[in-house]
Design brief:
Elements (H helix, E strand, L loop, with lengths): L1 E7 L5 E8 L7 E5 L2 H17 L6 H5 L2 H11 L8 H14 L13 H13 L4 H21 L27 H10 L2 H13 L3 H5 L6 E2 L4 E4 L8 E4 L2 H8 L14 H15 L14 H13 L4 H8 L5 H4 L6 H8 L16
Antiparallel strand pairs: 1-2, 2-3, 4-5, 5-6
Helix pairs in contact: 3-4, 4-6, 7-8, 7-11, 8-10, 8-12
Amino acid sequence: MAGFYEQTDQDGITIGWQAKVRRKGYPTQTKVFRGKREAVAWARSLESEMDRGIFAPRGESEKTTLGECFERYLAEVTPRKKAGRGQEGERGFISQWLRRPLSQRVMSSIRTVDVSAVMRDMEQEGKGPKTIRLHLAVLSHLFNVAKDNWGMESLDNPMSRVHKPKLPGGRERRVCPGEVGALLGAASLPIACLIALALETAMRREEIALLKQKDIDLRNRSVFLPKTKNGDPRTVPLSPAALEALSMVTPKSENSLFGLSGDGIDSAWDRARTAAGIPSGWGDDALHFHDLRHEATSRFFERTDLDIMEIRAITGHKNLQMLARYTHLRTANLADRLAGGKRGGIPHGKKSEE
């Protein structure tokens, strides 16, 4: 049964009410409230849960802050994630959560409305929908881990009712022929070779950063990628242009062909893009390094006779649905084929970029 005890100061003035719930088979639950009404409501809620057999202790969630949970998450959960960019990105998201006032709140007090308010703050800070959703995903996983593994069974994940920002459609930015020439002319030789390799292979930034000389098989015209975004190794065939680009690269070390991390590639790309006079930022006309992967994949559909499964094997896309948006690029080729054109030829009315 529940008991309610008035709390007074030295002058006998009421400063709060303590609620204490005792029930056989359950640990005693105690909490202090400003008013008796809140104390009674809390006790009745716990007793109802005990009656229905769904009670979960609230002690840990009522005394542990979000920030403390994130610190524990960094120590226990993040190290088990995929090494490299995955861990680095998660640490970056968590460091931003730790700087927000919400991190000072105890876990049990955080509601959906609080998360929605932070989401609005992120939008005002200029964060895009994808970045915001990644921040929210880390928060949601934290609540699930705390509920399942850290003795906070009573926690309600506030993310379950948050209306996440809608993702825009996939970027359709293509690289113009003049831009390719400008980039290659503005970049140093190693970076120009790196850009050419990305355009010929559709390799991701991190995959290029991790590329080693020993992974290059010139005899079989391929490179082996032991670590990829999807976690599966991949062998990428090399076109004549890709082979030419690699032949001009002097390996920086045994562990890195180009001697650049993913962030280092971004910095070199930014310098080359600026020198080439190509827009940066997040507008539709801005050119990102990842757009080279989109361009390379588009060219596989436009310029070759490779089927979608063969293209997927080269690009490493996780599923066929991610490649479905490229299939419309084959329409002109098919029309030319019906008119007697050669397989893999450049569509009628489209000039070669060479």
